[in-house]
Amino acid sequence: MKKALTIAGSDSSGGAGIQADLKTFMAFGVYGMSAITAITAQNTVGVQGIFELPTDMITKQMNSIMSDIGTDAAKTGMLSSPEIVHAVAETVKTFNIPNIVVDPVMVAKSGDPLLSESARTVVKENLLPLATVITPNLLEAEAILGQAIKSVDDMKSAATELKKIGCKWVVVKGGHLTGGKEAIDVVYNGNDFHLLSSPFIQTKNTHGTGCTFSSAIAAGLAKGSDPLAAIRKAKDYIAKAIENSLSIGKGHGPTNHLIGIESQWDNFQ
């Protein structure tokens, strides 16, 4: 059994954060573990409260896991403050944690901020260079680089600049860039560009897509896939999860993390 660790915040609504990560790990047949960085009071319409855990408690969670169980991959999500980013980055280096996927979570689907302005520079300088794969969306890539992204060529330029930071693979997620025709992601490893596209699905139920996508990549890496193969599988998975998303709550509902394996439940009825 391969193992994967999520280092992220808790989403009380279950659609994003560690809850989405653990569901995704299970969907990929990977044993999931978590180090919680913050607790959010959150639902499909917004974030009502955030409580950051003390950094020593975050590092203790990571120390407990790595000193006993270990992991084959890890992903980071909501880190919120410079102090938390520093603590996570140092612990990753201490244990030489492999196959790091960094989802630079900055804003919730509702528009609520999840990463302070001061923490963005620390993410760029301390965490991104440790990553096997980084998965910024357009807004996150713009915030990290300070440049506008309005086209696929702009995405390629952004991926090139992000690669210079030190990560091994960059995925710039296109999302709504094409105006509702295709969802295009630009993948870059320093040598070659790969454009991954899927049909754009008209739905408001996209809560937690970033968390789910990055977790799927981490699960693939944990199982031994090379980065490009893991990214392709994650792209297929998130497209199906969005296509079969769940109309839960009054706002942005979650994706369907169990897509592809829910039929197995028939055996338990």
Description:
There is one protein chain. The protein is of the alpha/beta class and 269 residues long. The protein has one domain (3-268): Ribokinase (UDP-N-acetylmuramoyl-L-alanine:D-glutamate ligase, 3-Layer(aba) Sandwich). 38% of the residues lie in helices and 20% in strands. The protein has a 9-stranded mixed β-sheet, sandwiched between helices. The longest helix is centred in the last third of the chain and has 17 residues, at 227-243. The mean pLDDT is 92.
What's the CATH topology label?
UDP-N-acetylmuramoyl-L-alanine:D-glutamate ligase
If you compute it from the alpha carbons, what radius of gyration comes out, rounded to the nearest whole angstrom?
A: 17 Å
Share in β-strands: 15-25%
How many separate structural domains? 1
What are the low-pLDDT stretches, counting only 5+ consecutive residues below 50? none
CATH class: Alpha Beta
- Count of discrete alpha- or pi-helical segments spanning 4 or more residues: 8
Which geometry do the CA atoms define? globular
Query: What structural class do you assign from the helix and strand content?
Result: alpha/beta
